[in-house]
## 1
Amino acid sequence: MSSAFQHTRGGVAVRFDAAEAALLRKLFGELVELLDDGAGDADDDPLTSAVGTFEPRSTPDDPAVARLFPDAYRDDEEAASDFRRYTESDLRSGKIDAARVAAESLGDGGRLVLTAEQAQTWLTALNDLRLTLGTRLSVTEDHEQVFGALPDDDPRKQLWYVYDWLSYLQQSLVEALAHDL
């Protein structure tokens, strides 16, 4: 079983067994697929890449993606669309890059040592995974009572265990990073 992230000289360390590393790689890969809307393809217009699209951007239809990119202006649809137009592409790209970097750093399991910068990237990717899975599961403040009461054969129970494990990893990473503060 994975260890908690621990502060080390110059960074943080954690240990994953092979199955945990494989699960995390799969989850990070699915996150990349979810976020890759094709808007950042290499054949895009260079002007659009530099200044953003001229087309309005609406709130994503997928609730999990909308949770990762909430409206900046909830009471002003036009301002929210403008904000999305200029920022969402870069935000998406950053989240995709974080998930890819985290997946690539896993190896086949074992001890993983991250620099402070790599740990921040992991923090982004873990947070995005938790938000996505939490949205899919409709996690609320009383989620422990709700999911703890599910029968073992309910497929949501296994996903809740994954959500809980990701929460544990994220919390231990935050604590390990706070050690230097």
## 2
Amino acid sequence: MNPRQMKMAMKRMGIKMEEITGVEEVIIRTKDKAYVLKHPDVQLMVAQGQNIFQVVGDYEITEPSAVSTAVSPGGEGGGLVIPREDVELVVQQTGVSEDEALEALREADGEPAEAIILLMSRRQ
């Protein structure tokens, strides 16, 4: 079956498929491993109300703690996402706790330089 016929058959079955472009990294974290895929091909299929992600690419296995994570200060469901590296940078530059750094980053709309300036100005 050629790709066009496959697409038509999926459409008849109510399955939508789209390519997700610009993906830089996918991390699958288990209890004792992290699978890191750099620049994978990712497709999203929606079938019967379920989202199905297909990820294709080369991967490497690392320790879960070796993989950088992001912090979502808005809690579950989105909002501002602050990379762990930004929190660590603010902590290193100001000597505050991670919680204080995260709060300053929230106030600075995720901008590390602004958060550092904000924290430094509070010390004076």
